[in-house]
Design brief:
The chain is an alpha/beta fold and 308 residues long. Helices cover 29% and strands 15% of the residues.
């Protein structure tokens, strides 16, 4: 592997712009202030209202040709081209853990799916802080910030969900999305729900797994490289320490029971950004400034891996 080129300041340059990602606008943190509860959104999305069509001034002539069925179809909006950058031509899949609507679809998310080594629930609701800030809201916020940072470097970014689904996707589908995109890297964003006093972040790496549809032999080494780079950048940029309860202070943990890793055919890791059940970690996770640092740390790690 060649040495990593000196980092350009492009990621830092978009930090201020990407803070304005939430409905609250610049300065909004996308979640409640510490001590304020935020309920999950369980309702269906409101349908957009359409403008009434003005009545015709007179009936069309019987001899008039019928209107073309395509005449009223609006062409799709052109996609804004990505800027050229060091990640041009690279595809990154970001997997925001859980879904804010999962709590309203318990039958669907409790359905068992095949993860190669056995069966697990389609998905779960995730955890939350004591004040009610949900992990699913946290993961969406960080993932959107991460998308902005990576796109600024030219990467094509795909989110497995963007609060645009009634639940899920299931863990097996999350893996298929990364595989189908032929992603150069996949990162699943999470926050842990351990006991108070347990603090810090950790990156989960795939173990060697062979069984059913699972065969991780080809992705174990590159996934470890990706995870180690993310862990190193995360420490430097967020100031958070590696987990004091998982991974022996390395910030790394290897698991074989996660369908999202077992079924992946492309390099993939999970990032547990902190422990939502610890008051000190929770205060960080609820801070917009810290979430921006978390996104930047992950983005820097991904860029380091892809530019190696």
């Amino acid at each position: 592997m060649r040495a990593t080129a000196p980092r350009r300041p492009v990621l830092a340059a978009v930090v201020l712009a990407s803070v304005c990602l939430t409905a609250a606008g610049c300065g909004g943190d996308g979640g409640p202030a510490p001590g304020q509860a935020q309920p999950l959104s369980g309702g269906s999305e409101a349908s957009a209202s359409s403008s009434p069509t003005p009545a015709a001034s007179k009936s069309p002539s019987p001899t008039s040709p019928p209107a073309s069925p395509s005449a009223s179809v609006k062409p799709p909006k052109p996609t804004k081209p990505l800027p050229k950058g060091p990640l041009t031509g690279r595809t990154v899949v970001i997997d925001p853990g859980h879904n804010p609507r999962n709590r309203d679809r318990t039958a669907e998310i409790n359905r068992q799916v095949d993860i190669g080594t056995g069966h697990k629930e389609c998905d779960t609701t995730g955890t939350a802080t004591d004040s009610g800030y949900a992990e699913a809201r946290f993961t969406l916020d960080v993932s959107r910030r991460l998308r902005t940072l990576l796109e600024a470097e030219g990467a094509k970014v795909v989110l497995t969900q963007d609060d645009d689904r009634p639940f899920g996707p299931c863990v097996d589908e999350r893996a298929r999305i990364g595989n189908g995109a032929r992603a150069d890297a996949v990162v699943s964003v999470h926050a842990d729900g351990s006991a108070a006093g347990n603090r810090g972040f950790h990156v989960i790496l795939p173990a060697v797994v062979r069984g059913g549809a699972a065969d991780t032999a080809d992705i174990v080494a590159p996934s470890r490289d990706l995870g180690e780079r993310i862990a190193g950048k995360f420490v430097r940029i967020t100031g958070s320490a590696p987990s004091n309860y998982i991974g022996g202070n390395t910030g790394l943990d290897t698991r074989k029971d996660l369908g999202g890793l077992n079924l992946s055919t492309v390099p993939k890791v999970f990032v547990e950004c902190g422990n939502m059940r610890d008051p000190k970690d929770a205060a960080l996770l609820m801070s917009a400034d810290w979430r921006q640092k978390a996104a930047l740390g992950i983005a820097e790690g991904i860029s380091s891996y892809l530019e190696r």
